[in-house]
Amino acid sequence: LSPGVAVAGRRICSKASACWDGARPRAYGSCPTRPVREACGLAACDWREKSSPFGVSAAIAVAAAMGAAATTGASCSDGPPLEPENHVEMSNWSGTHQLTTESLFSPETVEELEALVAWASRSKKKIRPIGSGMSPNGLALNHSGMLSMAQLDKVIKIDVKARTITAQAGARVSTILEELGKHGLTLSNFSSVQEQQIGGWTQTGAHGTGARIPTVDEMVIGMKLVTPGQGTLELKPTGPTAELFRLARVGLGALGVVAEVTMTCIPKYTLHERTYVTNAKDLRANHAKLLQTYRHVRYMWIPYTDTIVVVASDIPKAGVVPRPALPESERVKPLRDLLRELDPDCGPLDDDNFAQLREKLLQIDPLNPRHVARVNRAEAEFWTRSAGERIADSTEVLGFECGGSQWVLENCFPCGTIDRPSLADIDYLEELKRMIESEGIAAASPIEQRWTSRSTSPMSAAYSPNAGDIFSWVGVIMYITPEEKADAIKEKFREYAMRHADLTFKYKGVFHWAKLDIDFHRGRSRLGELRRQLQRRFDLVAFQAQRKALDPNNILGNRLTDTALRL
Hints:
Blueprint: E1 5-7, E2 10-12, E3 20-21, E4 24-25, H1 34-40, H2 56-66, E5 85-91, E6 98-105, H3 110-123, E7 128-130, E8 146-148, E9 155-159, E10 164-168, H4 173-181, E11 185-186, H5 198-203, E12 220-227, E13 231-235, H6 242-249, E14 257-264, E15 266-267, E16 270-278, H7 280-293, E17 296-301, E18 308-314, H8 328-331, H9 333-342, H10 354-362, H11 369-385, E19 388-393, H12 394-398, E20 406-417, H13 424-439, E21 447-453, E22 469-479, H14 486-506, E23 510-511, H15 524-537, H16 540-550, H17 559-564
Parallel strand pairs: 6-8, 7-8
Antiparallel strand pairs: 1-2, 3-4, 5-6, 9-10, 10-14, 11-15, 12-13, 12-14, 16-18, 16-19, 17-18, 17-21, 20-22, 20-23, 21-22
């Protein structure tokens, strides 16, 4: 979400309400007129429905090496270099976190950004950077002040020979994929949703899936970081900035404002995707081979059933003919039949797709575990009927429908190596599923499980010094439907998320930075446990030393970063 308002889940632009409609946005992408663009900061108005230590002296040395100017000499009483919008109501995309920010700045050039950051540091004015607002935990939100990157969205250069792309941090992943496609190139991996801005996407260490493919920050090979304390730094993986470069790749927007990113890309490719259902016993026997054989693999576990959906894809072999799934009208019959049984007055359903039917079913009684179990069983039958194959461009295969507005908590934990998977990932899901069913948690489907290889960024949830290590990512959800039960759903999901968090720590895991939520760690004991786990997993001493050097007045932090990362 860019400069806009969000009231009880309803989001509209503060100046251009035509861009928004109802509880979800209608258009990703460039508003046709400048006044509208200034108001909503989108890149188009036809919305589709649909996270070795080094200290302070190192940062000073880096700044000297790069010729960066420190922020000095101006009075704290000088005014901002550009006018903000004042008292703007903000929300993350899913509407789970909202607040009113005192000031929202929207620089249009890197020079404006640099001047703004320097002024804010002198004035000790908060300007927490925000991209698309896609983070479920509201990672970018701050009451005192925010900085929208939406208008710094240019693709600067595509080097076809070197297979790199340089873009401003506000450029969306979808835009980058589109521009790369014109040159026969693409990104090696990306998330299911492609409307994140590239800065926030990489700063949170987001991921796609594939046990041989790392988190998205590993594609970054250069970045321009505008820092409050050391000016603008050009960071590269070699030379005097190498250590800071690796740390800042997943910097959570707390070390500086990412202005530009250079990423590696690969030749555009096609995938042969296979979808089928299995059970835990057979999956355990075949799991290692699936991770080792397929480029991309994800599982969807369906609580209160024995069904696990496997979606695996790889480069198609020459001459292969995919076996298509049944038409969707036949696949959704179990959900349509159940809805008509439970609500005879539900009206026409023939035009409703799978996600719409599931939402209508869940909203009948979303917190009743017996009802949710019936819906899950109908969904399991849907996936059984959905077994089949397709061959399509990777951008089409890797992006998929995530359902409606939802609470989500996703973790990341080690599960062996690509050569020797430990099966901790299968153990985790079986234990989580037993807990859900024994405690009667109204856990809707799916529990999604994905994988990545390790990252070399020290603050990545998948960081490891060992090249062969692999990590599993597990997300639990609860759909926010109907809206009038939003508060009760939030409280029930908090209980569910706390159990997921307890299990995460047992398996030596942490959380996707865009999904870590302090509300799931209420109380001194639970918050202390979270901090201890983060300190065991990350070198927070080094990270906080860099924060102090690069942002001495903490103008870029917020409650989440300051609470979770406190030493």
